Amino acid sequence: MTAQLLNGRQRAKQLQSELSESFAEAAAASGVQPTLAALQVGEDSGAAGYLRAIRRACQGVGVTLRPIKLPEQSSQGEVQAALTELNSADDVHGIMVLEPLPDQVDGTRLVEFVSSAKDVDGVHPLNAGRLAAQREPHFVPATPAGAIRLLEEAGVDFKGKRAVVIGRSDIVGKPMALLLLHRHCTVTIAHSRTEDLPGVARQADILCVAVGRPEMVTGEWIKPGAVVVDFGTTYIGGSLKGDCEQASVEAVAGMLTPVPGGTGPMTNVMLMDNLLSAYRRKVPADGF
Q: Is pTM, for the whole model, over 0.85?
């Protein structure tokens, strides 16, 4: 068996084109330019690299990016004050806080200072709670949202299937588990302390891996014909590796999101999709 590889690059390009048209139509009708604010504290290269990626995503759909940069030594209060100002800005429709943050800034506390209506990352407790309860409106974190979109469009049958999510982060593992549960899967969340992790993984009709350990999951972990979603992104010797050892997993699985080219390209375009939702909620409905 050779797995069907789900092409995130191709689908992301299609979605980018669709979003570009939607933003242009909405902006023309309302006269309001869609704007995303990205807050960076300090000089971390990872945060700067993410900002560049977000800039490209915004340019691809015709959105204005407003970068806000604060000094490395900024206090918790100063960062929270900057977020409060962005929350009240009528010409800002989405807000992101770029990580990592300096040690003196508590990112967990910052999350609660971002307006839930502008939280396009989907990390505010109110959005997380609405997602858990399946109550609109809410934003879904972009990475799992993109993965679900790929699976749905590939014709994956979710109802009654056993899904295993390895990883329990607030931005990938937990929301992915909820999205699968909402589609009537029987869901297990596994992690580093799960006993017989390979055995648990082999029970999955749909296996999602988000642990940040390159090539940890091999073909021996995979139920023949399973759908495998690899969220891993680790650079080794200049090459991007996923959490799955692709060759051996591909030989057993029925479908696989490859790395690179699977869930990664979908993430930023789904962030733009969240921004479009935030924009439409904020701009008066009679402007459309």
A: yes
Beta strands at 94-97 and 35-41: parallel, antiparallel or unpaired:
parallel
CA distance 234 to 15: 25
For residue 241, how many other CB atoms are within 10 A of its CB?
19
Residue 5 CB coordination number (10 Å): 15
**CA–CA dist 97, 81 (Å, integer):** 13
Cβ within 8 Å of residue 277, ≥6 positions away: 137, 139
E strands, the chain, in order: 4-5, 35-41, 64-70, 94-97, 162-166, 186-190, 206-209, 227-230, 234-236, 239-241, 255-256
Integer Cα distance of 250 and 227 in angstroms: 10
- Name, in order, each residue with C-beta under 8 angstroms of 53's C-beta and a sequence gap of 6 or more: 268
d(CA 240, CA 272): 24
CA distance 223 to 207: 9
Domains of the chain are: 35-131 (3.40.50.10860), 142-264 (3.40.50.720)
Tens digit of each residue's pLDDT (9 = 90 or more) over 231-287: 999 999 889 999 999 999 999 999 999 999 999 999 999 999 999 999 999 986 544
Show the CA angle centred on residue 170, arms to residues 113 and 153, nearest 5°. 115
Q: Which two tokens stand for residue 235?
A: 């650079």
